[in-house]
Amino acid sequence: MTTAGRFGEYGGQFVAETLVGPLEDVWETYLKARQDPEFERELAELLATFVGRPTPLTRMRRLGTEHGVTFWLKREDLTHTGAHKINNAIGQALLAHRLGKRRIIAETGAGQHGVAVAAACAYLGLDATIYMGRVDAERQQPNLQRMELLGAEVRLVTQGTATLKDAVNEAIRDWITHPDDTHYLLGSVVGPHPFPSIVREFQSVIGTEAREQFLAAAGRLPDAVIACVGGGSNSIGVFSGFLEDEVRLIGVQAAGDGSGRLGHHAAPLLYGDPGVLQGMRTYLLQDDDGQVLLTHSIAPGLDYPGAGPEHSHLKDAGRVEYLTASDEEALAAFQQLARSEGIVPALESSHAVAAALRIAPTFAPGSQVLINLSGRGDKDLTSAMAAIAQRKEQHDGAA
Question: For a FRET experiment, which of 121, 140, 213, 214 has its CA 20 to 30 Å from that of 134?
Answer without folding.
Answer: 121
